Protein backbone atom coordinates (compact mmCIF):
# COMPACT_ATOMS: atom_id res chain seq x y z
CA UNK A 1 0.00 0.00 0.00
CA UNK A 2 1.14 3.55 -0.69
CA UNK A 3 -0.14 7.13 -0.59
CA UNK A 4 0.66 8.35 -4.12
CA UNK A 5 0.76 12.00 -5.10
CA UNK A 6 1.55 13.59 -8.46
CA UNK A 7 4.40 16.08 -8.76
CA UNK A 8 1.72 18.77 -9.07
CA UNK A 9 -2.05 19.04 -9.14
CA UNK A 10 -3.52 17.21 -12.14
CA UNK A 11 -6.38 19.14 -13.73
CA UNK A 12 -8.96 16.72 -15.12
CA UNK A 13 -10.96 17.53 -18.24
CA UNK A 14 -14.71 18.12 -17.75
CA UNK A 15 -15.36 15.29 -20.21
CA UNK A 16 -13.72 12.86 -17.77
CA UNK A 17 -16.73 13.21 -15.50
CA UNK A 18 -19.41 12.63 -18.12
CA UNK A 19 -20.70 9.08 -17.76
CA UNK A 20 -17.31 7.66 -16.67
CA UNK A 21 -16.84 3.91 -16.74
CA UNK A 22 -17.41 2.04 -13.48
CA UNK A 23 -13.69 1.93 -12.83
CA UNK A 24 -10.93 3.65 -10.85
CA UNK A 25 -10.85 6.72 -13.12
CA UNK A 26 -11.47 9.63 -12.87
CA UNK A 27 -11.80 9.29 -9.09
CA UNK A 28 -8.23 8.09 -8.57
CA UNK A 29 -6.88 11.29 -10.15
CA UNK A 30 -8.99 13.36 -7.78
CA UNK A 31 -7.80 11.30 -4.82
CA UNK A 32 -4.16 11.67 -5.78
CA UNK A 33 -4.79 15.39 -6.05
CA UNK A 34 -5.95 15.32 -2.42
CA UNK A 35 -2.54 13.98 -1.44
CA UNK A 36 -0.92 16.64 -3.62
CA UNK A 37 -2.91 19.33 -1.81
CA UNK A 38 -1.39 18.19 1.49
CA UNK A 39 2.14 18.35 0.09
CA UNK A 40 1.97 21.49 -2.04
CA UNK A 41 -0.55 23.86 -0.44
CA UNK A 42 1.85 26.36 1.14
CA UNK A 43 0.13 29.68 1.89
CA UNK A 44 2.22 32.28 3.72
CA UNK A 45 1.17 32.37 7.37
CA UNK A 46 3.21 35.55 7.76
CA UNK A 47 4.19 37.92 4.97
CA UNK A 48 4.91 41.59 5.01
CA UNK A 49 7.26 44.53 4.81
CA UNK A 50 8.49 45.82 8.19
CA UNK A 51 7.27 49.36 8.89
CA UNK A 52 10.73 50.65 9.82
CA UNK A 53 12.75 53.67 8.74
CA UNK A 54 16.49 53.58 9.39
CA UNK A 55 17.09 57.01 7.85
CA UNK A 56 19.67 55.69 5.43
CA UNK A 57 21.87 54.26 8.17
CA UNK A 58 20.59 50.68 8.31
CA UNK A 59 20.56 48.62 11.48
CA UNK A 60 22.85 46.10 13.15
CA UNK A 61 19.91 44.01 14.27
CA UNK A 62 16.15 43.65 14.37
CA UNK A 63 13.64 41.69 16.44
CA UNK A 64 10.07 40.95 15.44
CA UNK A 65 7.31 39.57 17.67
CA UNK A 66 4.54 38.10 15.52
CA UNK A 67 1.27 36.37 16.50
CA UNK A 68 0.66 33.17 14.59
CA UNK A 69 -1.95 30.50 13.92
CA UNK A 70 0.21 27.50 13.03
CA UNK A 71 -1.02 24.23 11.58
CA UNK A 72 -2.61 21.80 14.01
CA UNK A 73 -0.36 19.20 12.41
CA UNK A 74 2.81 20.81 13.81
CA UNK A 75 4.28 21.37 10.35
CA UNK A 76 7.77 22.59 9.45
CA UNK A 77 7.89 26.19 8.17
CA UNK A 78 10.34 27.96 5.89
CA UNK A 79 11.51 31.44 6.94
CA UNK A 80 12.52 33.88 4.24
CA UNK A 81 14.11 37.31 4.52
CA UNK A 82 14.71 39.91 1.81
CA UNK A 83 17.45 42.29 2.95
CA UNK A 84 20.68 44.01 2.01
CA UNK A 85 22.72 41.94 -0.45
CA UNK A 86 26.11 40.42 0.41
CA UNK A 87 25.68 40.88 4.17
CA UNK A 88 26.53 38.23 6.77
CA UNK A 89 23.53 37.90 9.08
CA UNK A 90 22.71 35.58 11.97
CA UNK A 91 19.02 34.61 11.94
CA UNK A 92 17.47 33.02 15.01
CA UNK A 93 13.88 31.83 15.34
CA UNK A 94 11.91 31.23 18.53
CA UNK A 95 8.42 30.03 19.42
CA UNK A 96 6.33 30.57 22.53
CA UNK A 97 3.06 29.08 23.73
CA UNK A 98 2.57 32.09 26.02
CA UNK A 99 0.19 34.88 25.09
CA UNK A 100 1.62 37.42 27.56
CA UNK A 101 4.82 38.95 26.19
CA UNK A 102 6.49 40.03 29.42
CA UNK A 103 8.03 36.94 31.00
CA UNK A 104 7.20 34.72 28.02
CA UNK A 105 9.21 31.52 27.68
CA UNK A 106 10.86 31.04 24.28
CA UNK A 107 12.22 27.89 22.69
CA UNK A 108 14.68 28.17 19.82
CA UNK A 109 13.44 26.32 16.76
CA UNK A 110 16.39 27.13 14.50
CA UNK A 111 19.32 29.39 13.75
CA UNK A 112 21.32 30.14 10.62
CA UNK A 113 24.23 32.39 9.82
CA UNK A 114 25.71 33.37 6.49
CA UNK A 115 25.72 35.87 3.69
CA UNK A 116 22.58 37.14 2.04
CA UNK A 117 24.27 36.67 -1.34
CA UNK A 118 23.85 38.69 -4.50
CA UNK A 119 20.04 38.61 -4.34
CA UNK A 120 19.72 39.60 -0.68
CA UNK A 121 17.17 36.82 -0.18
CA UNK A 122 17.80 34.03 2.33
CA UNK A 123 15.68 30.96 3.09
CA UNK A 124 16.04 29.14 6.40
CA UNK A 125 14.60 25.90 7.69
CA UNK A 126 12.20 24.36 7.40
CA UNK A 127 11.77 24.52 11.20
CA UNK A 128 8.81 22.96 12.99
CA UNK A 129 6.35 25.30 14.70
CA UNK A 130 4.32 23.49 17.37
CA UNK A 131 0.54 23.64 17.12
CA UNK A 132 0.44 25.20 20.61
CA UNK A 133 2.59 28.19 19.57
CA UNK A 134 0.90 31.55 20.05
CA UNK A 135 3.63 33.89 18.83
CA UNK A 136 7.08 33.70 17.32
CA UNK A 137 10.17 35.85 17.74
CA UNK A 138 12.55 36.47 14.84
CA UNK A 139 15.96 37.96 15.62
CA UNK A 140 18.43 39.23 13.01
CA UNK A 141 21.97 40.38 13.88
CA UNK A 142 24.94 41.51 11.81
CA UNK A 143 28.37 43.00 12.42
CA UNK A 144 27.69 45.33 9.48
CA UNK A 145 24.40 47.08 8.71
CA UNK A 146 21.27 45.74 7.09
CA UNK A 147 17.83 46.79 5.92
CA UNK A 148 15.17 44.11 6.58
CA UNK A 149 12.83 44.62 3.64
CA UNK A 150 10.40 41.69 3.66
CA UNK A 151 9.64 38.59 5.75
CA UNK A 152 7.73 35.48 4.71
CA UNK A 153 6.92 32.36 6.75
CA UNK A 154 5.16 29.48 5.00
CA UNK A 155 4.51 25.76 5.67
CA UNK A 156 6.82 23.19 4.10
CA UNK A 157 5.38 19.70 4.66
CA UNK A 158 7.70 16.70 4.63
CA UNK A 159 7.88 14.66 1.43
CA UNK A 160 5.67 11.79 2.61
CA UNK A 161 1.88 11.97 2.84
CA UNK A 162 0.96 11.09 6.44
CA UNK A 163 -1.78 8.99 7.98
CA UNK A 164 -4.84 10.85 9.37
CA UNK A 165 -3.69 14.12 10.94
CA UNK A 166 -4.83 16.30 13.83
CA UNK A 167 -6.14 18.85 11.34
CA UNK A 168 -8.59 16.27 9.95
CA UNK A 169 -6.77 15.36 6.74
CA UNK A 170 -7.23 11.73 5.64
CA UNK A 171 -4.90 10.68 2.84
CA UNK A 172 -5.73 8.55 -0.16
CA UNK A 173 -4.13 5.13 0.12
CA UNK A 174 -4.17 2.96 -3.00
CA UNK A 175 -4.09 -0.32 -1.09
CA UNK A 176 -7.87 -0.74 -0.96
CA UNK A 177 -8.82 0.98 -4.16
CA UNK A 178 -7.01 1.07 -7.48
CA UNK A 179 -4.83 -2.01 -6.97
CA UNK A 180 -7.85 -4.30 -6.69
CA UNK A 181 -9.68 -5.55 -9.78
CA UNK A 182 -13.17 -4.12 -10.04
CA UNK A 183 -12.64 -1.84 -7.04
CA UNK A 184 -15.77 0.16 -6.26
CA UNK A 185 -16.34 3.87 -6.43
CA UNK A 186 -18.10 4.67 -3.19
CA UNK A 187 -19.30 7.65 -1.21
CA UNK A 188 -16.52 7.70 1.38
CA UNK A 189 -13.84 8.24 -1.23
CA UNK A 190 -15.90 10.93 -2.95
CA UNK A 191 -16.34 12.67 0.42
CA UNK A 192 -12.63 12.33 1.14
CA UNK A 193 -11.79 14.51 -1.87
CA UNK A 194 -13.84 17.34 -0.41
CA UNK A 195 -13.31 16.91 3.33
CA UNK A 196 -9.56 16.38 3.27
CA UNK A 197 -9.00 19.31 0.90
CA UNK A 198 -11.09 21.58 3.11
CA UNK A 199 -9.27 20.33 6.21
CA UNK A 200 -5.91 21.40 4.75
CA UNK A 201 -7.29 24.70 3.51
CA UNK A 202 -8.81 25.65 6.87
CA UNK A 203 -5.74 24.46 8.79
CA UNK A 204 -3.09 26.46 6.91
CA UNK A 205 -3.90 30.11 7.40
CA UNK A 206 -2.93 32.62 4.74
CA UNK A 207 -1.94 36.12 5.80
CA UNK A 208 -4.19 38.75 4.22
CA UNK A 209 -2.92 41.83 6.07
CA UNK A 210 0.15 42.59 8.16
CA UNK A 211 1.58 45.55 10.04
CA UNK A 212 4.71 45.06 12.14
CA UNK A 213 8.03 46.66 12.98
CA UNK A 214 11.34 46.18 14.77
CA UNK A 215 10.99 46.10 18.55
CA UNK A 216 13.07 45.45 21.65
CA UNK A 217 13.20 41.71 22.43
CA UNK A 218 11.89 42.14 25.99
CA UNK A 219 8.94 44.27 24.92
CA UNK A 220 10.08 47.46 26.70
CA UNK A 221 9.38 50.75 24.98
CA UNK A 222 12.21 51.80 22.70
CA UNK A 223 13.06 55.15 21.20
CA UNK A 224 13.21 53.81 17.64
CA UNK A 225 9.82 52.07 17.67
CA UNK A 226 7.98 53.11 14.51
CA UNK A 227 4.36 52.46 15.58
CA UNK A 228 4.14 54.37 18.84
CA UNK A 229 0.92 56.03 20.04
CA UNK A 230 0.72 58.61 22.82
CA UNK A 231 -1.91 58.35 25.55
CA UNK A 232 -3.94 61.18 24.01
CA UNK A 233 -3.06 60.43 20.39
CA UNK A 234 -5.03 58.74 17.65
CA UNK A 235 -3.46 57.49 14.42
CA UNK A 236 -5.30 56.17 11.36
CA UNK A 237 -3.17 54.00 9.13
CA UNK A 238 -3.52 54.17 5.32
CA UNK A 239 -6.32 52.01 3.95
CA UNK A 240 -5.15 48.66 2.60
CA UNK A 241 -6.98 46.44 0.13
CA UNK A 242 -7.11 42.71 0.88
CA UNK A 243 -7.60 40.80 -2.38
CA UNK A 244 -9.84 37.73 -2.02
CA UNK A 245 -10.30 36.21 -5.49
CA UNK A 246 -12.90 33.48 -5.53
CA UNK A 247 -14.44 34.33 -2.15
CA UNK A 248 -18.08 34.27 -3.16
CA UNK A 249 -19.81 34.59 0.22
CA UNK A 250 -19.12 35.81 3.72
CA UNK A 251 -15.50 35.54 4.85
CA UNK A 252 -14.38 35.09 8.43
CA UNK A 253 -11.58 37.44 9.46
CA UNK A 254 -9.34 36.61 12.41
CA UNK A 255 -7.07 39.39 13.68
CA UNK A 256 -4.30 39.05 16.25
CA UNK A 257 -2.24 41.91 17.64
CA UNK A 258 0.57 42.53 20.10
CA UNK A 259 0.46 45.98 21.66
CA UNK A 260 2.79 46.86 24.54
CA UNK A 261 1.97 49.54 27.09
CA UNK A 262 4.06 50.87 29.96
CA UNK A 263 0.88 51.68 31.87
CA UNK A 264 -2.64 50.30 32.07
CA UNK A 265 -4.23 48.19 29.38
CA UNK A 266 -5.57 50.39 26.60
CA UNK A 267 -9.03 48.96 26.08
CA UNK A 268 -10.03 48.91 22.41
CA UNK A 269 -6.85 50.76 21.50
CA UNK A 270 -6.69 48.93 18.16
CA UNK A 271 -9.76 49.32 15.93
CA UNK A 272 -9.90 47.41 12.64
CA UNK A 273 -12.64 48.28 10.16
CA UNK A 274 -13.28 45.79 7.37
CA UNK A 275 -15.42 47.05 4.50
CA UNK A 276 -16.82 44.96 1.66
CA UNK A 277 -20.47 44.65 0.66
CA UNK A 278 -21.02 45.12 4.38
CA UNK A 279 -18.86 46.47 7.20
CA UNK A 280 -17.51 44.78 10.33
CA UNK A 281 -15.29 46.03 13.14
CA UNK A 282 -12.77 44.24 15.38
CA UNK A 283 -11.60 46.04 18.54
CA UNK A 284 -8.50 44.75 20.32
CA UNK A 285 -6.79 45.86 23.51
CA UNK A 286 -3.18 46.97 23.80
CA UNK A 287 -2.49 44.82 26.83
CA UNK A 288 1.01 43.42 26.55
CA UNK A 289 -0.41 40.10 25.32
CA UNK A 290 -1.55 38.49 22.08
CA UNK A 291 -5.08 39.78 21.61
CA UNK A 292 -7.49 38.18 19.16
CA UNK A 293 -10.87 38.82 17.57
CA UNK A 294 -12.95 37.53 14.68
CA UNK A 295 -15.81 38.84 12.55
CA UNK A 296 -17.49 37.93 9.27
CA UNK A 297 -17.70 40.28 6.30
CA UNK A 298 -18.76 39.84 2.67
CA UNK A 299 -16.14 40.78 0.04
CA UNK A 300 -17.13 43.21 -2.70
CA UNK A 301 -16.28 43.17 -6.39
CA UNK A 302 -16.60 40.52 -9.08
CA UNK A 303 -14.91 37.13 -9.35
CA UNK A 304 -11.12 37.52 -9.21
CA UNK A 305 -11.45 41.20 -8.22
CA UNK A 306 -13.26 40.52 -4.94
CA UNK A 307 -11.73 42.35 -2.02
CA UNK A 308 -12.12 43.91 1.42
CA UNK A 309 -10.70 47.29 2.44
CA UNK A 310 -8.91 47.37 5.78
CA UNK A 311 -8.65 50.49 7.93
CA UNK A 312 -6.73 50.49 11.24
CA UNK A 313 -7.02 53.17 13.92
CA UNK A 314 -4.69 53.23 16.93
CA UNK A 315 -5.63 55.29 19.96
CA UNK A 316 -4.29 55.74 23.48
CA UNK A 317 -7.90 56.37 24.55
CA UNK A 318 -6.55 58.84 27.18
CA UNK A 319 -5.44 55.77 29.13
CA UNK A 320 -1.78 55.12 28.27
CA UNK A 321 0.78 55.26 25.50
CA UNK A 322 1.49 52.02 23.69
CA UNK A 323 3.54 50.50 20.90
CA UNK A 324 2.03 48.22 18.29
CA UNK A 325 4.53 45.45 17.67
CA UNK A 326 2.41 43.57 15.16
CA UNK A 327 -1.06 43.10 13.71
CA UNK A 328 -1.91 40.17 11.42
CA UNK A 329 -5.25 39.34 9.76
CA UNK A 330 -6.07 35.94 8.27
CA UNK A 331 -9.14 35.54 6.01
CA UNK A 332 -11.06 32.30 5.72
CA UNK A 333 -14.15 31.46 3.69
CA UNK A 334 -17.11 30.83 5.97
Account of the 3D structure:
By secondary structure, the protein is mostly beta strands. Helix content is 9%, strand content 40%. The chain has 2 helices and 18 strands. The protein has helices spanning 27-40, 187-203; strands at 46-48, 59-67, 76-82, 88-96, 107-115, 121-128, 135-146, 150-155, 209-212, 228-229, 234-236, 240-243, 251-261, 266-275, 279-286, 290-297, 307-315, 322-333. The strands form 4 sheets. Strands 9, 10, 13, 16 and 18 form a 5-stranded antiparallel beta sheet that branches. Strands 11, 12, 14, 15 and 17 form a 5-stranded antiparallel beta sheet that branches. A 4-stranded antiparallel beta sheet has the order 1-8-3-6, with no helix packed on it. The longest helix has 17 residues, at 187-203. The chain is globular and about 65 Å long. Residues 217-223 have low confidence and may be disordered.
Question: How many discrete domains?
Answer: 3
Mean pLDDT: 89
Q: What fold name stands as the CATH topology of the largest domain?
A: Jelly Rolls
Number of strands: 18
Beta-strand residue fraction: 35-45%
User: Tally the helices: what do you get?
Assistant: 2
Low-confidence stretches: 217-223
The biggest beta sheet reads:
5 strands, antiparallel
Which key phrases capture this entry?
334 residues; mainly beta; Jelly Rolls; 3 domains; five-stranded antiparallel β-sheet; globular
Describe this structure in a few short sentences:
With 334 residues, the protein is mainly beta.
